[in-house]
Amino acid sequence: MTQPALILDYVYRHETALGEQVFLSQPVGGGVVVDYTWRQTLDQARRMATYLQDQNLGPGAKVAILSKNCAHFIMAELAIWMAGCTTVAIFPTETASTVRYVLEHSEASLLFVGKLDGLDQQREGFPQGLPLIAFPLAPTNDYASWDAITARTPPLTGTPHRSGADIAMLMYTSGSTGQPKGVMHSFERITAAAVGINTDTNRRIGAGTRNRMLSYLPLAHVFERAWVESASLINGNTHLYFAESLDTFIQDLHRARPITFISVPRLWLKFQQGVFAKMPARKLERLLSIPLLGKLVGRKVLKGLGLDNTVLAGSGSAPIPGELILWYRRLGLNLIEGYAMTEDFAYSHNSTAQINAPGCVGVPLAGVEVRISEEGEVLIKSPGQFVGYYKRPDLDAEAFTEDGFFRTGDQGERRADGLLKLTGRVKELFKTSKGKYVAPAPIENRINACPRIETSMVSGVGRSSAYALVVLAETVRPRLGDPAFRAEVQAELEKLLTDVNTELAEYERLQMLVVAPEPWTIDNGMLTPTMKIKRSRIEAAVEPHLDSWYAKPQAVHWA
Description:
Number of helices: 17
Radius of gyration: 24 Å
Strand order of the largest sheet: 7-6-5-3-4-8-9-19
Distance between the termini: 66 Å
CATH class of the domain at 44-224: Alpha Beta
CATH architecture of the domain at 44-224: 3-Layer(aba) Sandwich
CATH topology of the domain at 44-224: Rossmann fold
């Protein structure tokens, strides 16, 4: 019986049929961009695959990649697969201790080192004697060079195939709930998910449209790996651009002019705050409400962001305030929210043009089954479902129901039209001293809709009532030295607290808002590499101050 085509088979077809078409565009500094056609991409990957085979790593050997997004990440992954190995990607912002944990836990046989900001610290996590190969854009090092290896090594010939049951990649979760877990994905299942994603995308942008995407969210995360890299490897008719740096991001967007653009709520919010820094929210709203002129203004705003050609705009990875979705739609960008997990290879739910609503995360994608347990937990069975947790059969037993549904840990409810609405995380629920459980996510969404707020965290375990810790927007923080402006922000926060509390049940109401003394970042350990808040870390940081804050009868505290 013939095996259905897997992701590598699609790639070989593109190499033949689209050989001279540009696939990857990589900025290399100084305004220079290097383009790689499908043929050039595969030539590089084949040469590295030959080298990897010559190292006698063994079938299924784990080969790791530590790098920001770049063309050579994708070339390396293809080489790893063609050589019969399994990819282990590590978030480029991870600490040395986490890097070491992933490399040792996965039993990595070799490591590719690429674009990084913290290599000097991270190299302390490289096990002694581990073979290292540096991508062309890696910081200065004395490792074996990708370019030198591929220059002297002949390309692997033919079309090396993998079994559908072979493990294509280990994806280590970002660690927002503790030690990262290695999620095993097989070729059969990542292909099924990527084919489904590609079908869904083509339905939205038009079959046959040459898609353009900017790759910038970490490729070590499932969202980017599935919806950008894997979908591109299936589609073929995609031009994939890479961002050069955080400082050039808007220029990179203008260079790509993406047809499809996916992001996370934090960045969608930053875009909005950047717009408000140039034009006050009330003035923009007034202009958008004027017939005809409003459409022109909205398009100008989107052009300034580099999103005026975007047909498919999506948000995922974390909840996004419904008000923020509506704001983008006012501009003319039909921003939609989706929902998925590392464990289903980001293939679960997405909104459609016909069925969508701010605050809901969409309907099941083709082939996805969903139900809500008696406890309110969302249970998923997806074509992209993972094989299991690496070296953790105990977790596998806990993760699935008897009939094979994955326990997501999310609470939710389904509407009559099929839309899924998430109401919180099972493990994030906390009980106040009143004995009632509080779900923080819906309250945080209400707070995050305020333009003055960058992000927030609701907590209050064992306290008489909950509280919210807020990080003020990037455009607000520099002006707090002005007493008049600070008083204005204080008044707005007091009103925000009142407005939010009027929408909550009595047991959910917040006693106070606390302004965080500094923004939460990946570097200070308050955010995961995918910019989700680390609740336990933040709660521990403010715990010594809670008694004094609760003792003072005021609506807003400045930490």
